[in-house]
Amino acid sequence: MAALFLDRDGVINRRIVDGYVTRPADFVLIDGVLEAIALFAKRFDRIFIVTNQQGIGKGLMTEADLEAVHSGLLRQVAEAGGRIDRIYHCPNLKSDHSFMRKPSIGMALRARREFPDVVLHQSVMVGDTASDMLFGRRAGMQTVLVGDDTGLARSKSHLVDLCFPDLIGYARYLEAKGL
C-alpha cells in the first residue's frame, strides 16, 4: 500500500528561520497546502507527517504545545476534505543522534509497524531539505523535493527524484498524470 510521508516545516507551513513553531499562532500554512492534502487523500492509502522537533529537546516548547499546533492542523485538513493518518515527531536534539530523527528512518519504520499495510518502496517522501531526501532514500521511497532551493536539487540530485516549487505543484502533477 502506497503511503505519502510529508515533512512539516517548509512543506506544510512556513519555516521560521532560526526559530521554531511553538504555538498555533506561529503556524502559518503555505498557500495551496490544504487543497494538496485533499488531492493526496484520493491518491494515497495513508498520509503521514514526519517531523524533527528539537525545540522540545531544547526546552523551547512542550509536547502539549506541539499537540496544540498539530490539533489545529488536523482540524483544518479535515475541514478541507483531506486527512492525515498520523503525525510522527522526534523531540530529540540533533546531537542526540536518535534513530527516530531524520535522516535516520525510525519514523518510517514506526509508521510501517503501526500500519502493516504500508509498503515503503511504493511510498513517497516529500520534503524541503537534504535530510528529508536522505530519509526517503534510506527508507526506499521515491523522493520529492519542494521549495525554491534549486541549488539543493542540483547538488543532491542523487537523492531527488522529482522537484516542485510547492506541495500543490506536486499534487497537481499527480492529478494531471492520473496517478
Poorly predicted runs are: none
Total E-strand runs? 6
Q: Order the strands across the largest sheet as they lie in space.
A: 3-2-1-4-5-6
The global form is globular
Nearest-integer average pLDDT: 95
The structure class reads: alpha/beta
Order of helices and strands: EHEHHEHEHEHEH
Number of domains: 1
The CATH superfamily title? HAD superfamily/HAD-like
Distance between the termini: 14 Å
The CATH C-level name is Alpha Beta
Name given to the CATH architecture: 3-Layer(aba) Sandwich
Helix content: 25-40%
Q: Main sheet? A: 6 strands, parallel
Structure in words:
With 179 residues, this protein is of the alpha/beta class. It has one domain: 3-Layer(aba) Sandwich (Rossmann fold), CATH 3.40.50.1000. Helices cover 37% and strands 16% of the residues. The chain is built from 7 helices and 6 strands; from the N terminus they run βαβααβαβαβαβα. The protein has helices spanning 33-43, 54-57, 63-79, 106-114, 130-138, 150-155, 167-177; strands spanning 3-6, 46-52, 86-90, 124-127, 142-146, 162-164. It has a 6-stranded parallel β-sheet with strand order 3-2-1-4-5-6. Strand 4 (124-127), helix 5 (130-138) and strand 5 form a beta-alpha-beta unit. Helix 1 (33-43) runs parallel beside helix 7. The two termini are 14 Å apart. The model has no long low-confidence stretch (mean pLDDT 95).
